[in-house]
Each structure stands twice: as structure tokens, then as C-alpha cells.
Amino acid sequence: MTLGVFETVNAHEAPRNAPGNGPSLDLWFQGIKPAPWAGGLASTSVVIHLQGRVYMSAEQQPYDAIDPAIVDASVRLIANYSAGFTLGGLVRNVDLLGESGITLGGEAGYVMRDNRRFRVVTLDIPLIVNDLMAQAA
């Protein structure tokens, strides 16, 4: 919401109600796995994989304005993750270039919500967190 781009932001996938016409964002936890290249001798670092989905109604006019608006919202969000590389010190880094096997980025497509068609960009957001779990001695 702090970007001033999205009408709504949900911290879960597939809200019960369809978003409005302007850009909306859902963000959710997708998975976790060890990051063996990042851990210490007594701890395990991990990759926390978040996914997000930027939505815009595919039924609004003019149709030619839908993709530029959803690209703008997606690029601004990705740029924010890139600039906020450690999310204020909460993580080691956002894995911009895919050291974890997951690259920060997105894929475009369409989804249906409440019998309405939406243009979407589904984002992969890999976060590297140092020393999250202790290893047995």
C-alpha cells in the first residue's frame, strides 16, 4: 500500500471477493527450503518463497490500457523489492538473480473471480533468511 499503486492489498491468496478495477495485490507464503550455500556450521539458512498476484479487471475500457497499467504496477513492486534488498534488515536479501533457483519476477496470465475475468501477473519473491534454524550439536 505504501507504493500508492494498489487499491487493495491482501495477505492471502484468492480473496473471497473479486478485486475492483484498479490494480490489486494478493501476497502469500508459497514454500520454504534450506539454502545450503548460505548457512553456518551450527545453523541452517533458508529460502522463504512468497508469491504475489497483481490483478486488474480485464473487462474495463479501454482494453489497450490494461496491460500498461498492470506492467507499471508489477514493475514498481519488483523495483521496490530490489531497492529494499534486505526488507529493512528482516532478511539477508531478496534473491534478485535466482541463487536459490527462484528468481524475483513474474508471469502474466488471466484468472476468474466472481465470474469476472482479470488480467494478472503472478510474482515469485524469494527471500534468503540467514541462520533461521539451529542444527543439532
Question: What does this protein structure show overall?
Answer:
By secondary structure, the protein is mainly beta. The chain has one helix spanning 66-83, and strands at 8-10, 24-34, 43-57, 93-94, 105-113, 116-134. The longest helix is centred in the middle third of the chain and has 18 residues, at 66-83. The protein starts with 7 loop residues before the first strand and ends with a strand. The mean pLDDT is 90.
Using brief descriptors, characterize the structure shown.
mainly beta; single chain; 6 strands; STM4215-like; 13% helix; 1 helix
List the helices and strands and how they pair.
Layout: E1 8-10, E2 24-34, E3 43-57, H1 66-83, E4 93-94, E5 105-113, E6 116-134
Parallel strand pairs: 1-2
Antiparallel strand pairs: 2-3, 3-6, 4-6, 5-6
Question: In summary, what is this structure?
Answer:
The protein is mainly beta. Helices cover 13% and strands 43% of the residues.
Task: Classify the fold: give the CATH topology.
Answer: STM4215-like
Mean pLDDT score: 90
Count of all domains:
1
Please report which band the strand proportion falls in: under 5%, 5-15%, 15-25%, 25-35%, 35-45% or over 45%: 35-45%
Total beta-strand segments: 6
What structural class is derived from the secondary structure elements?
mainly beta
Number of helices: 1
Shape: elongated
The CATH class designation is Alpha Beta
CATH architectural label: 2-Layer Sandwich
Give the proportion of residues in helices.
Answer: 10-25%
